[in-house]
Amino acid sequence: MATVKLRKVHWRDELPYMVGGSVKWQERPDGEEPLLEVSGYLRGRPLCANNLAHLSHLGTFQIHSINGPPDPCPVHRQGNDMEGLGELLDAADEQAEPLTWVKDVDPMANEQTWPTDEELGPAPGDGVGGDSDEDDVPMAIPYENDDAVSTKSRKSIYTEIQTQIDSLMATDIRRLENMTEEEREAERKHYEAQRRQNLGLAGEDREFPDEVDAPWNIPARQRFLRYRGLASMRTSKWDPYENLPPDYARIFQFQNIKTTQKRAWMAFDDMPVPPDRYITIALKGVPRAQFDASYATLKARNGFVTLSGLRKHEHKWSVMHYNLQFSKQYSQPVKSKESVLMHVGFRIMRCNPIYSEPSMKADKHKLMRYYHPEDKFAVASCFAPISYAPMPVLMFKTPELDAPTADLVAYGNVMGADPNRVILKKVVLTGSPYRIHKKQTVVRFMFYNEKDVNWFKPVELFTKLGQSGRIKTPIGTHGYMKCQMSGTLRAEDTICMALYKRVFPKWTTIPCSWLPEVEGKFRVPSLEDHGPVQEDLEDSLTPSMSAVQ
Questions:
Q1: Which end of the chain has fewer surrounding CB within 10 Å, N or C?
Q2: What homologous superfamily is domain 181-237+425-502 in, according to CATH?
Q3: What's the CA gap between 252 and 537, in Å, rounded?
Q4: Which secondary-structure segment (H or E) carries 207?
Q5: Nearest to residue 198, comparing CAs of 315, 338, 89?
């Protein structure tokens, strides 16, 4: 042990962090809300009171001030060691990092009207080469504020939605509390049956990847209306700003993430509070009743309070991507959009990520319906707070309903924030040869009516044995079609057609917080927990394009 050298944790050394040795409340005069004081030894990088502070399991808050109390365990004790060092820095309101986490969205911004003649005419002072604030605007199209819809009314929309969510959560909690043992046993059996069904679907996905059957009672042109054919997934173009969901108007997008990350790192060099000293950080806006209950639960579990400083923009949300490697300790496949627990650095969240193939040089990435242990590597994507690389990621999953423990499913690191990453869901329609004559083949069981054959006629065909072809003409009215292939088919071959559509993660991410209700029930954090919505844009961040319905 004497010869072993302690390895540095590089990602942790790039952040200011501390373990709270002392946690107490500071009362303030004139009826102001009390401050939560966390004392400990600052490690990692320097800290500034204008930064946001994250308490693991508890949330993110603004720093009111940073004080330098006497060091309880000084290395070299001197006569004045017990004298207070005074306040080191007081956060200024105009310089402090806000608690903004999403963009304020105007639901009326998507309404389009025909422009008037004055609007179509040249703007006053418009010229080529002149200075304009629009020079730095990227291709993303932001939502514009509408004077007809006030900020108060927009916030009331979010409040109403959150009230409905809280009501549903409260109803679900009451249902769980009033369940009998027989009902709980039936719930567990239903969960186990659902899990076995998912395992069967996962095995089918492994044996027949992406293959689906066209429904016989629904026209295929309606069932696969949002899908399109691609001549080549590698070389075909796909507009990343096409048909974006409304959630993309609430998140942020970097113009240059490397430059922003570099500036965030360099900002720590000029901060006034150096590491390796004993300090007291006063946090404001911490709900006292909820924190006291959470802190009691934390102490009962022999836990401790961990405080870490966030870099600029790390409290804002975007579409985050994580490079994952499947753990050898877990043997079950994980379905896309299945609930998992993600540990990203010091922050923890419950989310439903989608998985895609880790192709680094491609501009389009294939969706993985199931993340199999045999796949080893994958990229998980979800709505989440922005984190700068390098940052470790651990993904856990509960083995059964109401399980007290969680299994490590995968581990990896942060890939980055990129809403423009195109993830395509692939479906393969299959048919069988009915008549074969040289290079011409009659195919059946891919479609079930003549209109579907004509609808998908421009899409290229391929076979599992390496042939390619195209649809020439439908035969009859029951979905039979004549196809021209590149060679003579074998009777056991299968004709396939690949269709693609872009998929997006769902906004179901919940930052894990031990801020319970009065009776100790866990709750979904609301908009008020994360701070106000944003009114103005940051210089290095831009809102993503609005939805095109």
A1: N
A2: translation elongation factor selb, chain A, domain 4 (2.40.10.190)
A3: 9
A4: helix 181-207
A5: 338
The number of C-alpha atoms within 13 Å of 263 and in the hemisphere containing its C-beta is 11
Tell me which of 113 and 28 has the higher pLDDT.
28
For the stretch 271-314, pLDDT in tens is: 888 888 889 999 988 888 888 888 887 788 777 889 999 998 99
Distance CA 49, CA 63 (A): 5
Strand partners, 23: 38
DSSP at 79: T
Instruction: Examine the pLDDT at 49 and tell me if it is beyond 80.
Output: yes
Q: Across 196-353, where does the E strand assignment appear? A: 211-212, 252-254, 278-284, 306-309, 317-326, 334-335, 340-344, 347-351
Fold of 247-256+315-420: Elongation Factor Tu (Ef-tu); domain 3 (2.40.30)
Longest dimension (CA), the chain: 101
Rounded-to-integer distance, Cα 155 and Cα 145, Å: 13
Pick from 81, 85, 50, 52: nearest CA to 67: 85
Per-residue tokens: 153: 């009314």
Taking Cα atoms as reference points, which of 530, 478, 136 lies closest to residue 310? Answer: 530
Structure tokens at 505: 């993660």
- Tell me the pLDDT band of 532, cut-offs 50, 70 and 90: very low
Among candidate residues 36, 66, 35, the one with its CA nearest the CA of residue 295: 36
290 phi and psi angles, rounded to 5 deg: -65, -40
